[in-house]
Every structure is written in structure tokens, then in C-alpha cells.
TrEMBL record:
HTH tetR-type domain ranges (all copies): 37-97
Region: Disordered, residue numbers: 1-36
Species name: Streptomyces shenzhenensis
Keyword DNA-binding: yes
DNA-binding region (UniProt annotation): 60-79
Name of this protein: TetR family transcriptional regulator
Keyword Coiled coil: no
Keywords, ordered alphabetically: DNA-binding
Transmembrane parts of this sequence: none
Family matches, as InterPro entries: DNA-bd_HTH_TetR-type_CS, Homeodomain-like_sf, HTH-type_TetR-like_transc_reg, HTH_TetR, TetR_C_22
Molecular function, one GO term: transcription cis-regulatory region binding
């Protein structure tokens, strides 16, 4: 059965409704816009649940609408298809991820031990992926929309560059090509370990996270020769 036409929840245009002393005209579009933004957030939350449970390929707009508790007609007022939902959701998640690695890969205090730096970075990314499991589901799906894949590749390249900056404080005197290679290996170890850790829960997940830290520390320690990081200029 097709959906009955519904009143759009999109923002209105200025002057579309008569104003009153208590409710000026300009407030009406703002309220409609706020309702629309809440509805979009509701749909994206529902999509995240469906993508995690079914995967992107098997998910459908009907399933997302059902999870959100709205009709498909309401969903189509905001998103034309499943791909558009995934792109919007992926874009927001990658923005949050950029904020996360911006906080992680900041300037290193010269007195910070390598183990502490590695542990803090791993913990931050594990926390992000635990809070947003759909990020991993979207990025690893075989049918991930091309735009998401492209943005993820750009994110990967930026993360490698930031890891290089962080490692340069520890790998003093090492050739730039070696630092770059080490950054790629660190990110590869982390991503593989993260996938393994996220497949478990509770204490078992914590144990796998610690193993990831151990691997990274044991890989990096011989390269650093026990040096503490040099101050950033």
C-alpha cells in the first residue's frame, strides 16, 4: 500500500504564515527548520542501527523508516534513497573522527613516555568506534557508496600524515621515508587490531585493546631507542 501524502516537515519560507504579536513570522521557519533537523537526526540514528544490524547492502529505506517509527513517505521528504542517507551519516561521522584525531595527534609533551602516547591514541579511537559502531560497518562494506569511500581514503591519508607528525617527535634523525613507512604500519596494525577488538565485548574487548597497545609499543620501542620526544617548535 502506498503512503498517504503527508505535510512536509521542511523549513517554511519567510512570510509563508501570518505573524502575531507573540509569534512573529520569522519564528515560524526557524521552528520548522528545528523540527526538520530533529527528524533528520532521528532518521540517521535509525539508519545507524539498521546498517549495523543488517549491513549497508541488505538495509532498505523501509527498514530505516520502521526503525525510526515513521512512514516511508516521511523518510522520503528528507532523503531520496538509502545511498543519500549513508552519505549524510558517513559525512557526519567522518567530521567527528577528524575532531577525534585532531585531539589525539596534538603536540606531544617532551616528557611523555611512548607507552602513554600510544595508549591514549588507541583508547580514543576505540572509544569513538565503540560509540559509533556504524562507522566501521559503513567504511568496510563491499557496496559502500563511492563518495564515502573517497572521503574515507582522504581521511586515511590525513591520519597517516598526522601520525607522521607525532612519530617525528620520537623518531629523531630518521629519514622522512622511514617515518612515513612507520606511520603506515602503525595505522595498519591499529585498524586490524581494532576490528578484532570490536568483535568482542566487555573484559575480552579490553584484553584485545591492551594487546593492540602492546604490539604497537613493541614495534616502536626499538625504533625510538628509548628516546623521549623532542619538543615541537
Amino acid at each position: 500500500m502506498s503512503d498517504k501524502p503527508e505535510t512536509p516537515e521542511q523549513p517554511g519560507t519567510p512570510g509563508s504564515e501570518p505573524g502575531t504579536p507573540d509569534k512573529p513570522r520569522r519564528e515560524q521557519p526557524r521552528r520548522r527548520q528545528a523540527r526538520g533537523e530533529r527528524r533528520i537526526a532521528q532518521l540517521l540514528d535509525a539508519a545507524a542501527s539498521v546498517f549495523c544490524a543488517s549491513g549497508y547492502t541488505a538495509a532498505s529505506t523501509n527498514a530505516i523508516a520502521r526503525e525510526a517509527g515513521v512512514s516511508p513517505g516521511t523518510l522520503y521528504q528528507f532523503f531520496p534513497n538509502k545511498e543519500a542517507i549513508a552519505i549524510e551519516l558517513g559525512g557526519r561521522l567522518m567530521h567527528e573522527m577528524r575532531q577525534t584525531y585532531g585531539a589525539v595527534f596534538g603536540r606531544v609533551d617532551p616528557a611523555t613516555p611512548l607507552a602513554e602516547t600510544v595508549g591514549a591514541a588507541v583508547d580514543r579511537f576505540v572509544a569513538f568506534n565503540s560509540e559509533h559502531p556504524v562507522f566501521f560497518a559503513l567504511m568496510k562494506g563491499p557496496d559502500t557508496p563511492g563518495r564515502i569511500a573517497e572521503e574515507h581514503e582522504a581521511l586515511h591519508a590525513t591520519m597517516v600524515a598526522r601520525i607522521e607528525e607525532l612519530l617525528s617527535s620520537y623518531l629523531t634523525g630518521r629519514p622522512a621515508a622511514e617515518v612515513t613507512r612507520t606511520a603506515h604500519v602503525c595505522l595498519g596494525i591499529h585498524k586490524a587490531g581494532l576490528e578484532l577488538a570490536l568483535a568482542h565485548e566487555g573484559a575480552e574487548r579490553d584484553a584485545y585493546v591492551q594487546e593492540v597497545k602492546n604490539v604497537l609499543i613493541r614495534y616502536l620501542e626499538p625504533l625510538t631507542c628509548g628516546h623521549t620526544p623532542t619538543p615541537s617548535p
